[in-house]
Amino acid sequence: MENSMFCYQCEQTVGGKGCTKMGVCGKSPEIAALQDLLIYQLEGISCYAKYIIDKGEKVDVKFSKFIEDSLFTTLTNVNFDPDTHIKLLQKSQELKDELKSKAEELNFNCDREQVTYKLSDSKSKLLEDAKLARLDRDTDEDPDVRSLKHTILYGLKGISAYGHQARFLNYTSKEVDKFYFEALAAITNPELTLTEAIELMTKTGNMSLEVMKVLDDANTTSYKNPEPTKVNVNIKKGPFIIISGHDLKDLEMLLEQTKDKGVNVYTHGEMLPAHGYPELKKYPHLVGNFGSAWQNQQREFDDIPGCILMTTNCLMRPRESYKDRIYSTNVVGWEGVEHIKTLEDGTKDFSKIIQKAIELGGFKEDQEVKEIIVGFGHEATLKNADAIVNGVKNGAIKHFFVIGGCDGAKPGRNYYTEFAQKVPEDCIILTLACGKYRFNKLEFGDINGIPRLLDIGQCNDVYSATKIALSLSDVFKCDVNKLPLSIVLSWYEQKAVADLLALLALGIKGMILGPSLPAFITPNVLQYLIENYELRPISTAEEDLKDLLENTI
Ligand code: SF4
Ligand code: SF3
């Protein structure tokens, strides 16, 4: 292995094959090594935990929480700080030792390398040891089983991000907490068969749905169901903080702490749907949405007279022009960027960032207001169910397109703008996640009062999309695959993998995926997905539209 690292977990991986010298995302070989070793340790911990559970004993929830936080730390564009990784590695050994004693009391005997490995005590040795844990290490494993194992691992990373967000609001799933152990332990099994790996992939999809449901409960109970809401996408005069990522609780805490301080709060990226939640939109200083999707942040944050708070993915290398005004929280981190910790009581102290925003002075003038509408989660959309159903029955609505997923930097992503623009006027577009920035400021008009572009929410709101689709299939008394509905996905990082696996587990067929296919899917696994789910890569917007519309009732 002459390459200094190997990572192929996201869509922008070098040459569609793997990052081997340096991550396109900014991940260094050192971080890559520490992340590989961390995953390896999580696998070892999981072997112990699974054994203990199989013996009918309990495993404390702190182990699942640790796995969840660590997996999330290794998701694309989340954490680039070596110290954070080393601390997590040290903690992993402590937890592993704790489970080891308990498992041995129960006669555990296993010689898998992830189980027997003991963490070294110096950074240089850790980096050396990490070679054992590389995803491209030599094994005599069937490449298709390995491909499925990696798909499962990446699905788990997505699940961990959603689980982390829900847990912060005190919502958890025991099933998901246990599944981390089951899946990670299975990945260490050299004898896992193709059939078993496929079953585990489906179960990962089911667990992804489960965690998204729990997160939906957490968000809609804490902040009430989203409702259609206009959001200004231009700027207002005054000091400001831009909050990015997916974590609504961080936004709530920030809004509370900026109350009456003369500081405006803007959402950025995946935080946009927050404006639809009654318990968040009630704050008058939540003034609008700033910028666009994650890949434009370096340009959009350059030299702005305010602060930025990153709550989840996607963080890019901060430019010097704003490194002193960008802050991270939760598992997000970058060496030299100030991190805001969660205090013992679960709260956070945002006073530093607020103070800094006031010092920076903010925007000097208001821009003309330009509004878009968000807030079409399952409740709000299904409130219009009668109008939607009648529209379909009387021919006013021909087809629904879910155009959802991540945005990214590749020029090929113009496909999604083009696709949305070409969707005929008698069709409705449902959208979610940050890929929507490719078209959410365009005018789509309405069909008999129903907006033609319905923003369902964040990537985890794929759950909302499935709820809407399943309700429609109930009304029309047909299988969801027979609905006049097509799903056009864009992927970038591993939450999209979790979303895709959830949709496959529900038996949804005929989805199209782009801008390119995951590097970790082998030709045989792809063939399996084509044969069983009719999943296919995007071609041109024109051809795909024509093809999908033929499926109209
Ligand atoms: Fe490369 Fe993506 Fe891995 Fe970053 S996360 S190193 S860009 S494959
Ligand atoms: Fe976007 Fe990073 Fe995936 Fe949540 S924020 S969808 S890319």
TrEMBL record:
It catalyses: A + NH4(+) + H2O = hydroxylamine + AH2 + H(+). The modification Cysteine persulfide is found at residue 406. Hybrid [4Fe-2O-2S] cluster binds at residues 246, 270, 314, 406, 434, 459, 493, 495. It is found in: Cytoplasm. Residues 85-116 form a coiled coil. One of its GO terms (biological process) is response to hydrogen peroxide. GO terms for cellular component: cytoplasm. The keyword Transferase does not apply. GO terms for molecular function: 4 iron, 4 sulfur cluster binding; hydroxylamine reductase activity; metal ion binding; peroxidase activity. PANTHER family: HYDROXYLAMINE REDUCTASE (PTHR30109). This is Hydroxylamine reductase.
